Amino acid sequence: MGWVSFAFLAWLVGWRINSWLAHLPRTRATALGVPIIFGVTVIAIWECLVRGLEISPVLLPAPTQIAQTFAASTAILWEDFVQTVLKGALSGYILGSGSAFLIAIAVDRFPFLQRGLLPIGNFVAALPIIGMAPILVMWFGFDWQSKAAVVVVMVFFPMLVNTVQGLQDTDAMQRDLMRTYAAGYWKTLLKLRLPAAMPFIFNGLKIATTLALIGAIVAEFFGSPVRGMGFRISTSVGQLAMDLVWAEIVVAAIVGSGFYGGVALLEKTMTFWHPSQRR
Amino acid sequence: MRNVGPILTVVAALFLLWYGAAIQLNKPWALDKAQRAGVELSFNELVADTWSQKKPKLPVPHQVGAELWKTTGEMVAKGRAFSKRSLLYHSWVTFSSTMLGFVLGTLLGIALAVGIVYNRTIDMSVMPWVIASQTIPILAIAPMIIVVLNAVGISGLLPKAMISMYLSFFPVVVGMVKGLRSPSGMQLDQMRTWNASPSQTFWRLRLPSSMPYLFTSLKIAMAASLVGAIVGELPTGAVAGLGARLLAGSYYGQTIQIWSALIMAATLAAILVGLIGLLQRMTLRRMGML
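Predict the joint structure of the above. Result:
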């Protein structure tokens, strides 16, 4: 009973502090502190409830237990990280978004292709592309190449659609100005249209970060060598080793947020001039 | 309608590419077979063989089409539309958990958005986590959710729907927060001069003006929800549903089955998103926003 009432207390205290902080004038410290306190409170409640209600670790391990497993199995986690993230997700991400970018520039030269490809790209972007995973695993084998292929297919269309839209985001006045400067196609592309497309391209890149990780992990459910995050998750679930599963999830969460945050940071430094980035 | 020509051209090009790729990918097997039989294949025979293998690396559209017809139209004609071999049955299983997850996710999303718009504390503490929650590849834990919920005694539709819910609530939250905050200061002031109560402001101004945003996010949520349902079906041991068909197909190398399940999933996605688009147009037209 003690733990449960402590959980209640933690909730009360956390909420109190947050509602006090939230009504202070908004500064950087409160904007950062409030969500952190919320997260800490949730973890504290989780820990207390698991202990107080004696929930079996097979169902839901306590945060402290997950942390212990995390610290104890860093070698396995690192191996899985290299296999899934560095080899599978990252190489697929670079290949997929890079080729989508190049094709978008090629498509942009032909309005006919553009009108035909854009609706199809939009349509395909809404399809459950992850279903391609078993086919690609069959084509490219069990190792990371097939995971990279799944990631390429998943990130390609969001990236293509965003880049094509971005390249159209200049108005006639700006293009006319380039023409009065006697700038040719390539100069206009480099100096006007690509910079103008940057916010769209980064939007596509940000969407693609999550898709890349999801693609690489889910593709491993369809067959993989004996390492990788998806492999570890599905086998550990079978062995009811939930603490290891949660440790993998922590890794996935850190990688996912870090990846996204990195792209967002890059966006901030490269498109500082855009209204959405100005304060 | 001026886009029809270009779209058809691109689609036709894709089909050509598909048939060509099928020849390339299925050629080794065809040549291998011919060599063992000790016959020389002419080009025509080779093409005919690559387009009609039983377990091709890449089945061609007409093979997939035939399989689709066999598992849908023909089953219906025989009066066994919902037998376990019918793709309609599997689509129905996936559809029902998609819908349940979609509805739950939409309700959760709207509730959270109202909380975020009306309560500063919720806004500041929850909103960053809502965004962070999407950078986490949640589909990775689908197997765990299914197993854990099964252990607690919840099985069937709900575990799959939970995954769909998690994937679909996010676009709704983000869209609805934007939508509920879209009335301008002038409009809000107008409500104040009319001495409107907070609930009147909500029902008569904020909610109606959030509708365009809501429908846009519902489309994304629906597509995400379908993906969630399909992935949720993978770890259940391939019992039923389109995801189960994909997994079973990959176990037994039944590529035609995989492709037909894939096309079915795509059709389902197109129909569901299209329906929301229709609903959107009808609603917005009645509200005078179109």
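The two ends of chain B are 19 Å apart (CA to CA).
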